[in-house]
Request: fold
Amino acid sequence: MIRNDSFYDVVIVGAGPAGAAVAFTTAKLGLKTVIVEQMPEPEHRVRCGEFMPGLEEIFRIIPEKGDFFSLLLESERFSTNITREISLVSPFGYERRVNFGAYVIDRRRYVQWMVGKAVDMGAELLLNTRCVQLEIGGEGVRGVVVKRKGGDQKVLKGNVIVGADGADSSVAKQGSMFRSYGDLDLVTTRQYVMENFLGDEDVCRMYIGQDYSPGAYAWIIPKGEGTINVGTGIRKPYLRSGDTLRGCLQRFIKDHPQASNLLKDATVKGVISAHVPVGGSLEKTFWKNVLLVGDAAGQVIVHVGAGMPPAIIAGEIAGQTITKYLEGNTPLSDYEKIWKSIMQKPIKNGLYIRKLWDKIAHNDKKAEKFLKIIRQGMLEKMIRAKIPITVRLFAPIITKIL
Ligand SMILES: Cc1cc2nc3c(=O)[nH]c(=O)nc-3n(C[C@H](O)[C@H](O)[C@H](O)COP(=O)(O)OP(=O)(O)OC[C@H]3O[C@@H](n4cnc5c(N)ncnc54)[C@H](O)[C@@H]3O)c2cc1C
Reply:
C-alpha cells in the first residue's frame, strides 16, 4: 500500500444527504473537511421517492426547536412539485385522505448544491473513492483508508471521522456500532421513474396489501409535469413463497384496481433498488472520535420511511458539535445528546407504529378494517409520528379484535 497521508479536521464517508449536510456545516465553520464518495458524483443514482414534508409539517413532526434546521429549510428551493394530501389506499381499494403539505424535490440538485457549497467553502471532495477500512489506533480512529477506482490506496487522517455511508455503513461495522438487521427491520425497495402519469399531481399516494407491498407500502409520488416516482417495498417475512419484489411492483403497475388506471399510459425512464432501515435508531451513534449520521445511524421515521429530514438535521447537529469539540468547548458525545433530544421521540413513535402494523400487515382483511375504523384525528396524528393515547392504551386489543 502506498502511504500518502493527508490530515483533516473531519473526514466524512458518504456524500448523500447526511454527509452533504455535515460537510456544508463544517466547511462553513472553517474546518478542514474532506468528503469521500464511492460514486462518480453525489446522488449518481437517486434512491429516494423525493417526498419532503413542508416546513409546517416538519415542525409538527419534530417540534423541538434548535438551530439545526437551516439546510432543511433550503430544500423548498429544489422542489419540482407541491402536494397537499396523502392518500392511503387499503388492499381492497378503500381510500382515506389526510391533508399534508409537502414538496417533491429534485434530490440530486439539492444534495449536489450542499456538496458544491461545501467545496466552494474549502472542502475537498474525493469521488470514485471508497472507504475500505478505518485506521484504528491510539485513543480512537486515526483516519480512513480509501481506494480510488483503479488507483492506489491512501490514508486520510482526521481528528473526527463521520460515517454517513448509508444503511449498510462500513464505518458503523468497524466502529463496533453496527446492529445487524432482523428480518423485520429492513425494507427492500424497487422504484421506477415514470412519465405520462394521468392522476392528480397534488396527492401523494400510498397503497398497502399483500399482493403489492407485503409488510410495507407501494407509492406514487408526483414529481410534476406527468413524471412520478413509483415504487414498492417488501419485508421478507411477509413475502409469499415464490413471489418477488419485482413481481410485486409489476403487479402494482399492471393490476392494482386503482393505480393501474392512473399508470396505464406511463412509461419507465429509470429504475433503482435499495434498502430502508426500519429498525429504529442505533443505541450508540458515536464511538471514540467517530460519529454516525443518517441511515448509518438508523435515523429514519420508519412507519413512513422518511429518512431525508432526520439525516439533514442530524448532519447539521454533527457539523456544529464537531466544530465545538475541536475548539475544546464540548465533548463529541453531545452530538448524540442533541440529536436524541430533538428527534428521538418521532423516531421511536414511528417504530412503535411500525410494530403495531407488523401485527396487522400479514392479513389484508385486518389491514382494510384498521383503515376503516381508525378515526380521522388518530390517522392524522399517526401519519405525523404521534401516538394517540387511545391507540397506546388499546393497541393489544385493537390488533386482536380486528
Ligand atoms: C426507494 C426509497 C425511497 C425513499 N423515499 C424517501 C422519501 O420520499 N423521503 C424521505 O425522506 N426519505 C426517503 N427514503 C429514505 C432516504 O432516501 C434515506 O433515509 C436517505 O437517503 C439517507 O441519507 P444518507 O445520506 O444517510 O444515506 P445515503 O443516501 O444512503 O447516502 C450514503 C452515501 O454514502 C456512499 N457510500 C456508502 N459506502 C461508502 C464507502 N464505503 N465509501 C464511500 N462512500 C460510500 C453512498 O454511495 C451514498 O452516496 C427512501 C429510501 C429509498 C430506498
Observations:
- The two ends are 62 Å apart (CA to CA).
- The first strand starts at residue 6 and ends at 13.
